[in-house]
Amino acid sequence: xATNTYTKYNEEFKKSxxxxxxxxxxxxxxxxxxxxxxxxxxxxxxxxxxxEIDDGEVLTAKQVKELPKRNAQLEEENLILKKAIAIxxxxxxxx
Length: 95
Fold this sequence. Notes:
The chain is mainly alpha-helical. Helix content is 62%, strand content 6%. It has four helices and two strands; from the N terminus they run H-H-H-E-E-H.
């Protein structure tokens, strides 16, 4: 009977390894040194990598991935509001 013997790493540990990776250590080095599987480490890199945008704000990869969805939602809301304005704005008799 096989048992699941994986190690559960805390978020702080994951973020620190991703930071080391972003500062030049290779994935292979980190996996070997800390005993982490390459697949788990790859997921952490996707989840915790950060991107600095023009105004200095730092976004995680997850936040960047969610931006198109949020943009589509805002565009839909904007379209609804435009239609509502067109319905509720009285037209002048000159039209």
